[in-house]
């Protein structure tokens, strides 16, 4: 079990297990100490990564687990920059402390949004009210303008329809006069001076005039106008219904689009107004900052152990080997 734990610790920290197993108990304890610190930080950030992915990225269970895994991998890689460094510089310590401060703030923000979930939901009521007040006037003004335009169009169509009805009542029928030319053959008998008779035919044209009464053609224009009026009235009713429901619809749309930054604003307003909320946020921030600095502080106060001396010795041997090979190469080239 002890050997398994050291292997797991070497896997997390990046230590070489073969060197650790041949080193003293001090090196093994250093691995165990770093492993414990890493596990605490990784567990905390796995929870933060899982919650953030699920809440704000709307990830599924698998997606949230992937988000938690990514957060853990990032933490391990950051911590390894300190753990695996031999004689780290002040700039490395300073940059790690800066990253620790930023990560503590980010983590505290995400955790407090989960802790203050109910309080944030209550605070959202006034937040939504302010947004609705800003977005409502332009929406209602546009709908009222459309309703007024439809009223004008309906009024014009009603006047047109009434004018046609009045004209039809005055002139229900329209007289139409048509003339037809009918050719007629007329025979004439002519007697000359000798007493002989002759017959001649002559075509004469006669004009026949007929008067007919037909329905006023404007009657056919009423039905399309009435259909148009009915369609306009339907559109007007839909616009009036939309005007009545514009506020709850707008509230629903805005509430569905509230994201991470909006909740940050709500939480900021909550923290700045409540000393208790501010104290809780600071408590989480300092707690996470302490966790982030565990490895850094441990590394700063740790003296070099035989593991690091072994690594340095191996490096020195390798450097000496390279120098010898370089000299041998130079000698062979001269010969």
User: Strands of the largest sheet, in order across it?
Assistant: 1-2
Rounded to the nearest angstrom, the distance between the terminal CA atoms is 59 Å
Question: Average pLDDT value?
Answer: 79
Uncertain runs: none
Computed CA radius of gyration, to the nearest angstrom = 49 Å
- The percent range for strand residues is 5-15%
Structural class: mainly alpha
C-alpha geometry: elongated
Main sheet attributes: strand count, strand direction, barrel closure? 2 strands, antiparallel
User: How many structurally independent domains?
Assistant: 2
Number of helices: 12
Question: Secondary-structure element order, as H and E?
Answer: HHHHHHEEHHHHHH
Please give the number of β-strands: 2
Helix percent band: over 70%
What does this structure look like?
This protein has helices spanning 2-13, 17-21, 25-55, 61-83, 90-115, 117-170, 222-244, 246-256, 260-273, 275-292, 294-300, 306-334; strands at 173-191, 197-215. The protein is mostly helical. A two-stranded antiparallel ribbon has the order 1-2. The longest helix has 54 residues, at 117-170. It is elongated, with a radius of gyration of 49 Å. The mean pLDDT is 79.
């Amino acid at each position: 079990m002890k050997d398994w734990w050291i292997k797991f610790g070497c896997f997390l920290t990046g230590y070489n297990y073969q060197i650790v197993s041949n080193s003293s108990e001090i090196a093994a304890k250093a691995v165990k100490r770093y492993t414990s610190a890493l596990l605490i930080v990784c567990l905390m950030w796995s929870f933060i990564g899982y919650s953030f992915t699920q809440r704000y990225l709307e990830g599924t269970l698998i997606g949230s687990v992937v988000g938690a895994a990514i957060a853990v991998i990032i933490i391990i890689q950051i911590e390894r920059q300190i753990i695996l460094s031999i004689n780290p510089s002040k700039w490395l310590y300073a940059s790690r402390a800066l990253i620790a401060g930023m990560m503590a703030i980010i983590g505290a923000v995400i955790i407090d949004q989960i802790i203050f979930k109910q309080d944030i939901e209550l605070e959202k009521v006034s937040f939504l009210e302010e947004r609705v007040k800003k977005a409502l006037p332009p929406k209602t003004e546009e709908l009222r303008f459309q309703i007024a335009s439809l009223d004008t169009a309906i009024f014009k169509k009603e006047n047109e329809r009434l004018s046609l009805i009045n004209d039809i009542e005055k002139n229900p029928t329209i007289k139409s006069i048509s003339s037809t030319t009918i050719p007629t053959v007329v025979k004439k008998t002519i007697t000359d001076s000798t007493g002989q008779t002759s017959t001649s035919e002559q075509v004469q044209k006669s004009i026949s005039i007929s008067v007919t009464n037909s329905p006023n053609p404007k009657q056919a224009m009423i039905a399309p106008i009435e259909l148009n009026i009915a369609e306009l009235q339907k559109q007007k009713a839909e616009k009036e219904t939309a005007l009545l429901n514009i506020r709850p619809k707008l509230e629903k749309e805005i509430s569905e689009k509230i994201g991470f930054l909006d909740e940050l604003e709500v939480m900021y307003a909550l923290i700045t107004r409540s000393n208790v909320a501010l104290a809780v946020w600071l408590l989480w921030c300092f707690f996470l900052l302490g966790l982030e600095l565990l490895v850094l502080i441990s590394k700063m106060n740790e003296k070099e152990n035989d593991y690091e001396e072994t690594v340095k010795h191996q490096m020195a041997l390798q450097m000496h080997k390279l120098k010898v090979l370089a000299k041998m190469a130079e000698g062979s080239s001269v010969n």
